[in-house]
Amino acid sequence: MIGLFSRLRVIIVLVVICALGITAVAFMIFTQREVTRSMLVQGDAEARNIMHVIMLNLADNASGLEFFQKYARRRYEQHLRDLVSVIVSEVDFFHGLCRKGVLTEEQARRAALDAVQNTRYGNNDYFFIYDRNNVAISHADPRIRGRDMSHATDIKGRPVAKTMWNMTREHRDGFLTLWWTRLGQKKPVPKLLYFYHYPKWDWLIGTGLYIDDIDRDVAQKMAEIMGVLKRTFNQVHVSETGYFSLFDGSGKILIHPGLENADGSVLKNPVTGRNHLQDLIAASGNPAVPFKYFWDKPDDPGDYRYLKFSHVERFTPFNWYVSSSVYQDEMEKPAGIIVKHQAIFVGIVVLFSMIVVYLLLSRVTAPLARLTWHAAALQKSDFTLSKDGERELLQIRFPKEISHLARTFWNMAQRLGEYLKNLQETTAAREKIESELRIARDIQMSMLPNRKAVLAGRTEIDIYAVLEPAREVGGDLYDFFFIDEDHFCFIVGDVSDKGVPAALFMARSKALLRSAAQDRNIAPGRILQAANMELTDGNEMLMFITVFLGILNIRTGEVVFSNAAHVPPVLFMETGLCRTVELPVGKPLGITKKAGFKTQRLHLQPGEGLLVFTDGVTEAENREKGFFGEERLLALLGNLDHPTGANRCVDAVLHDVKSFSKGAPQSDDITVLCVRYAGAAGA
Predict the structure, then answer these.
(1) What is the pTM of this model?
(2) Which of 233, 248, 182 is nearest to 211 (CA)?
């Protein structure tokens, strides 16, 4: 009997070892394949993510360069104004001597002309003076001085003097761009003229700046951008030797670890013989898919057997191409290290399992021998077992106490496993919903306009808005944007429901209103009509939205507006008086296609503005179920210091609403938008 159990122990140990070995080998093979695939996917994703960051950096630099070009132009225009202003002051000085009798008018005129004629600045730049007969009575070029310039034209055939005089009919000064020859040179170049009508002697005083001066500043700025990009590219790596490069559409390599400033148009792929840069340019048509090719390595030159992955994206504003470059074996290398460590770990586990199994079997064989004796004794007895008893005996692998304990724990584990499984499913579902709602809120907030971006460089208006949903997402909306240089559109709306359905309906409404408002010749009532027609189609849920839409002419202060059953806005004047604006009746959008919307007008003086809000403000409740109300809102606005910033006005309203609520839960979405008219620029 002891020999039987010894053989059984050996057989069981061998079976366990074989099972563990086969399982370990299968697991390692599967793991190596999956880990390798995951490493390739991760490496490719890392390259694409870095590429995305680089493209964002390029876009930011392109925007900065465009802004710098506009800023440089405005700076030089102001410089020309300042220079001419100095000359006008000097001419005015001699005119004053004439009026005082110190000089005759002829002497004063001659002294002023000589002073202007001899004045230089910058790169041999000068001033000129034309009289009403278009005679250049003062000019740095002796060939032009004293000539009748009536018929003098630039290379495009435009009469320069006549054009400037004609422009002074509407304004005393102005700018004119033409092609002209720099003093002391022969080749004409673009030149920006600034001229000023001096009415006391009926002179046209002016000067000019050659555009290549501005271009040099832009080129210098571009060189600074390239320096920053080179440092950025040198600091970014993928895997061990992976890198990013930059080349232009003509084939010049702008940034590369070893081929910078080289002519890439002659670079051939040694394996295929094709033009390598042309292959990369073709790959930019689908930047999400890597371009694969064989290349050599720095430590193995000339051996073109290493597979490389390259993602290529085109940066259209500069006609640049950004390319990633990483070797496949470097991306797979971490997978090999993981599998190696895994093999060591599995080996240790198999060895440890063998020892544990052997010890456990040694502990179990003694109870098995006793169980066999009892089985033999049962065969000799007249004892009859029930079927349940037989099944229980056949299933016993340990002594009765261990078997009972194992069964108890097995039942408990089964129940606990079911409970944990249900709990995990419930928790995961709740967390998924909460996560999706947070993402939806972030998406909804990101749809709101960027105040700084919209008002960049604009001083005619001041606008500020806040949206606070009652839930994670809400149905309120606000939007503001310039339809063109002179017309500024602002919108506030309130969807009939809350939560995700209202947020989706809000997003659709916002897109339709913005799209309809892009035509500056369309009236607000027609904008609402166009949006209503679209929202009514397919609206089986019968959702609707109230909207106030206004368009402000920033030159005149006139506001044309229309209303779709929205809460009336408040007009506040510079004197501190406030009143509710009477609105057209209108119906909410999305109910019926037959709804009509009227357009009304009002005129804002500089310092005056409108506060547009949703009923979440006036219908805010406190713990006593009292409403905030319109009267409290008007009293609050009337007590503010006027004029005050739009942000301070909105913040004051929100602060007062929250103070009134005294901790009561927010029952409705709250949106507040304040727009103030500061007056036309330069007025």
Answers:
(1) 0.42
(2) 182
